Fold:
Amino acid sequence: MLAALVAGLGGLGLALAVLPFQLDDAFITHRYAANVLAGHGPTFEPAAAPAEGFSSPLWLALDLAAGAFFGVEAIPRAASVAGCLALLLSMAALAAVTDQTRRPAPWIACLLLAISGPVAYHTATGLETLAFVALTLVAVAGLTGRVPLWLGAAAAMGGPLCRPEGMWIPVALAAALTVVRERDVIRRGAILATAAAGSALALLVVRRAVFEEWLPNTYFAKPPDRLEGLRYLLDGLLDPWALPLLALAVIGAAVGGKWPRAWLAVALAWALAAVLEGGDWMPAGRFLLPCYAALAVAAAGSSALLTGSRRPRLIVLPLIMLCIGGGALEASRVVGLADASLRTIRHEDRRIEEWLAEAGADSVALIDIGEIGFRGTLEITDLGGLTDPVIGRAPGGRLAKRFDLDYLFDERAPDAIVLRLEREPPLDPGCEGTVAAEDLRASVERRVHGGPRLGRDYRLHRALIPDYGRTPLYGRLLYLRRDSGIPPPAGDCRVSVAPRKR
Structure:
């Protein structure tokens, strides 16, 4: 466990450097928890019907417990703490399933995963990612006999409750069983797969009872694109950290015996799951983390070459050093990315909130709904459709929903609409000028802007245009209803907010 502890503390040091940044999607679950605690039920909007716009029932339960004991304002911090504990559990699972007869093996597995960009970015940023990694590691470890079978079964049951792809755990187990076909291992696999399948079935029944749907609303809002998923997989495996990790896993599977080969098969199963999900829009390989963890276990099999002749050591040691060095560089990059996002985009979001408050707006339609929804009391229309069944179930892919615009302008009729910019439009100080469809970031935003209703019912109130060379631009346009009675802002409506100082 020394390897798990040292690697875990190293990984935590990198992960904590990301704080206080949290992913915007994490605040969606936080707001669900706040609404349940306030007596509104499992809904993002207090007055709306229940809709499953969160990704993890298990993480929602954790948020609920934190909010009940420590208050709603403590929920984000509790989520970060839980992610850090999940990292330590993942390290303990890695150490437990590697070959204990070869001393370097646990160190190789733990350090290769802990010192990496994905772990640094996703541990403390508020989502259930590392908890799911820990559950999948412990579930598959139940095959090996190095963790108690009851513990592996409990982890297998928790997988579907933690992430939608937890239903893939039986497939990952089956992949391992194609390599290790021993009778006792097959028996364990059957028990573990039954536990995961039973949990998944129970979740479907509860979902149907609570939300009147068999699938979560997030599935419809983000229909999987297999080609994008393949691109996501290739990008995630061909970076300076993951590529030597993959090479070490192949070497470990070749020389380390049956279990490293089994873990490589598990990694391939989780890679396929990421493709079938259609990839992800977040940086740092969130959907590939279970694959990376399994590759780290397989890579530990390469320790068999470290006690052999000089030539194999000259192959394995540079790969280990390259992987750890590449992981540290990637971790440094994502820490900088989180810091830049916190000081720029999130800092600018606060200005948007101030303008909405000054205008007396009670409702807003936008894409980035998480943090603004959790911190305030605005009624929110989710243009991405994650929490809105009408938009989420409309035709079209992620952020490209072709819903009836009358639903937005007549039924929801928000006081304000916020659209994100990909490039700066030619606007004068009075916000007069032409905003082209190509100036906006997402297809759904271009569609909202392109219809006649926006220009007829709303006027451009503010344009937040960063002018310090940010790429992509990620500016924001704030529209207010013409009947709001709010006069145009005095002076230039185009505003540039300087990055917040560290």
Q: What stands out?
A: The beta strands are 363-366, 379-382, 416-421, 458-464, 475-481, 494-495. The two ends are 37 Å apart (CA to CA). The longest helix spans residues 310-343.
